[in-house]
Amino acid sequence: MNFKLTITVLFGAFIHSLLLGQSQTYSVKKTFFSTDQYDEFSPVCYKNVLVYCTNRATTKIFNYSTESNKGFVKINYVDTASNNLQNPKYFSKKLNTKFNDGPVTFNKTGDTVYYSRISLLMVSYQRFPVHEINLEFFMLYMMVQTGLK
User: Which DSSP category does 120 fall into?
Assistant: First the structure.
């Protein structure tokens, strides 16, 4: 009896989702600048660019990496106004540190960015064999653009 009831409920839920689901369909494909070897996530549109987080290094000079041999997460962008989506760049030198940064979001007018980053806190505690401990944790920050004309 319970089996029939379970099948009936599942079938009813399936029919309900078909009747009340989205009427439009979407085609999903990978972006041109996405890779199979790096992580890219948290895209957000800002003016004529697409800002996102990635652990892909955009420079060959400094290439910090984690234990899994992937770079730290940085905030990058690609210009969507031009068709040059294959050349990602750092979004802002002020936002990117040598640790993990992002994701980001912007206010309605685009003059304030909210983002997260790893913060380091050195704690002195006498009960530990080493009296100083470095703690890493994510904190939220905001940066306001000044000097707009």
Answer: E
The residues of the chain scoring below 50 in pLDDT are 148-149
57 burial type by CB count under 10 A (0-12 exposed, 13-18 middle, 19+ buried): middle
What percentage of the chain's residues is helix, strand, coil (to nearest 5)? 15, 35, 50
Task: Indicate whether this model's pTM tops 0.70.
Answer: no
What kind and span of H or E run contains 124? strand 112-124
Question: Given its phi and psi angles, is residue 102 left (phi above 0), alpha (psi -120 to 50 degrees) or beta?
Answer: left
List the Cα angle 51/53/58 in 5-degree steps: 90
**Rg of the chain (C-alpha set):** 23
> Phi first, then psi: what are they for 18, rounded to 5°?
-70, -40
AA letter at 78: V
Q: 47-77, pLDDT tens digit by residue?
A: 888 999 988 866 665 555 555 667 788 899 8
pLDDT above 70 as % of the chain: 64
